[in-house]
Amino acid sequence: MLTGVIDRMEERSLVYRERDPNDRRVVRIWLTPEGEKLKGTLPAIGEKTISKATQGLSESDYKTVMGILDCILQTNQRKTGKANC
Questions:
Q1: How many structural domains does the chain have?
Q2: What pTM value is reported for the model?
Q3: Given 1, 7, 55, 65, which is the most exposed site by the fewest CB atoms within 10 A?
Q4: How many C-beta neighbours within 10 Å does residue 54 have?
Q5: Given a cut of 70, is residue 26 above it in pLDDT?
Q6: Same domain membership, residue 32 and residue 1
Q7: How many CA atoms lie within 13 A of 79 on its CB side?
Q8: Pair (45, 66) in one structural domain
Q9: Do 46 and 18 share a structural domain?
Q10: Containing domain of residue 52, as a range?
């Protein structure tokens, strides 16, 4: 499923794949300059998606979900060495 999404993004020149030189099992996905141009639209799309997905949750459950998403983001940033996703 995710591979198909990445394939379509690659066909549209939004991303490219790069094998990790130290671990052949790892394939990193990077934005192309064209993908970078679209990156600015992602926060609004993400906010809308999260809003729909969390509709009807209690405030407590909402805070739990957002805390987990923040933890995932921070973990990803540490692994990739990037300050922003």
A1: 2
A2: 0.50
A3: 1
A4: 13
A5: yes
A6: yes
A7: 9
A8: yes
A9: no
A10: 41-85
The alpha-carbon radius of gyration of the chain (Å, integer) is 16
Residues 52 and 17 in one domain: no
* H-run or E-run covering 59: helix 59-80
Q: Is the pLDDT of residue 17 over 50?
A: yes
Max CA separation in the chain (angstroms)? 45
Residues 48 and 81 in one domain: yes
Higher local confidence (pLDDT), 11 or 2:
11
* Inter-residue contact 38 to 22 (CB < 8 Å): no
Report the DSSP beta bridge partners of residue 28. Answer: 18
pLDDT of residue 83: 55
DSSP string, 12-52: TTSEEEEEETTEEEEEEEEE-HHHHHHHTTHHHHHHHHHHH
DSSP state of 26: E
Residues 60 and 31 occupy one common structural domain = no
For the segment 27-50, the average pLDDT, to the nearest whole number, is: 90
